[in-house]
Amino acid sequence: MGRLVAIKRGMAPEQAGAAVAAVASEHGAEGADLADTSGLAAQDKISPSALTAVLRAAATSPKPELRELVYSPPVAGYNGTLMKRLGQPSTLGLVRAKTGSLTGVATLTGMTITQDGRLLAFSIFAHQPGGALAPHKPIIDSAVAAIRGCGCQS
Question: By the 8 A CB rule, do 73 and 97 touch?
């Protein structure tokens, strides 16, 4: 997909990272420095706030093709990488998010509707210097459940 973005912007396909970072920046997502769009390049850097800004921009975009982005991530407890995660009654079917994991890093970025009916974007990154990921997934899921349970008005 990143290569297609580069081509659409008149850039070489090998400039996919720069093209996607530029588009993200145009939609308010500062802090993306992408060498490529595979997600595997050690030089790739993107902040949680940049990812939430992309989701926020997509959810509020006047362009239907961008709004569709918020419907594409897996649904908690139902499909994809969330099929066996966030399946408790408080989150089941109420969280859409994309997982990410590499050696020593686990992430979850998505959207949920809070108890008071607000749509919130979130991005949680957890780093484990020793490389183990297993302990972080339940902690990340607990944080998402807490976000989902928010009843605050501000």
Answer: yes
